[in-house]
């Protein structure tokens, strides 16, 4: 799905979004807070203010997940 639909669904279920090939390694938590979108990488500390590339914004392979990365 596109990023707009994925973001909407993630907010409904308090989930995260990921590109299909990122799933299990990188997840994004969309928020309206000062942190903006928070990037979670497997084995890394959360990073606020994710900065997507144009291809990420145009992609239609976004998925919603509730899986925690450790």
Describe this structure in words.
- With 70 residues, the chain is of the alpha+beta class.
- The protein has 2 helices and 4 strands.
- The protein has helices at 3-13, 54-58; strands spanning 16-19, 26-29, 38-41, 62-65.
- A two-stranded antiparallel sheet has the order 1-4. Strands 2-3 form a two-stranded antiparallel sheet.
- 16% of the residues are buried.
- The mean pLDDT is 96.
Short descriptors:
70 residues; alpha+beta; two-stranded antiparallel sheet; 2 helices; 23% strand; globular
What is the approximate shape? globular
Question: Assembly state here?
Answer: single chain
H/E series: HEEEHE
The number of E-state strands comes to 4
Low-confidence region ranges: none
Rg (C-alpha, Å): 11 Å
Strand order of the largest sheet: 1-4
What share of residues is helical?
Answer: 10-25%
- Helical/strand content category: alpha+beta
Layout of strands and helices, then pairs:
Layout: H1 3-13, E1 16-19, E2 26-29, E3 38-41, H2 54-58, E4 62-65
Antiparallel strand pairs: 1-4, 2-3
Task: Give a concise summary.
Helix content is 23%, strand content 23%. It is built from 2 helices and 4 strands. The strands form 2 sheets. Strands 1-4 form a two-stranded antiparallel ribbon.
